[in-house]
Amino acid sequence: MALADADHKHSNQHTAEKPKDAVEHSEVIFQAIGVIVGEVNISSSGEKTITINGSTYQFFYIPRKVREFELLAKEIETTGNHTQRLLVYPRVMHFPRKEQPYQISFQLLAFDRGQERDVYLRKLKDFEFHLSGLWQFIPVCRFPCISIFRNFSFERLEYIKQAEPMTKVQYMKASHLPILWKDALVEPFKFNPKAEQDQGYPMFVSIKAKFIPQKNVFSFDALLSLPQETLPRFLKVSKRVFEK
Known about the structure:
Layout (H helix, E strand, L loop, with lengths): L3 E2 L25 E12 L5 E5 L2 E6 L5 H14 L3 E11 L9 E9 L7 H5 L4 E9 L8 E4 L1 E2 L2 H9 L2 H8 L2 E6 L22 E10 L4 E12 L5 E4 L7
């Protein structure tokens, strides 16, 4: 596939071989979704932040969620209550130097209006996240991460075929969420560029985690399913994206 790797390859950027039996039609998907509660502030310049236990985070929304954001802003304006319960996707920006702290932000999906219309707002507790992805170390983070890739669909594939190279990169960019997971059932995969032998692949894990703002990290709470070698199909940036 000339524009994007969209079949069964494992996500590690250093490997290109096929793992065992990728899952094509399954309930198993890459996922990172959860609930946060904090003081929402929307400045006159349009900056959007949420403060959780003294730590302030940026939050944002995509165009199809503009109505949800407008309703949230109206709710705050009408009631004067800035403390809101939000359903979000977590996003993490890492930097080239490992010692430079990563930055966590949140993408708004919905807010709790007391009607509990959304299934995740009903079933998730405050600061609870469901995370499903590849369990591995990445070079720029001192914590092991669960790497969340964009799930494959033919509609998404058609979209990226038409997109500009940098749009493709942003669209398919993985989110690597730092995890505290003591006594994990499987060790996080760590690629050794000097090793000559086959190093295997990251395992696909699904966990329930708590967001810990004091430490700016997610902490393992419980397994949602056992770790597995099989994984869903996903979209991954290929070097060929930049080839003319």
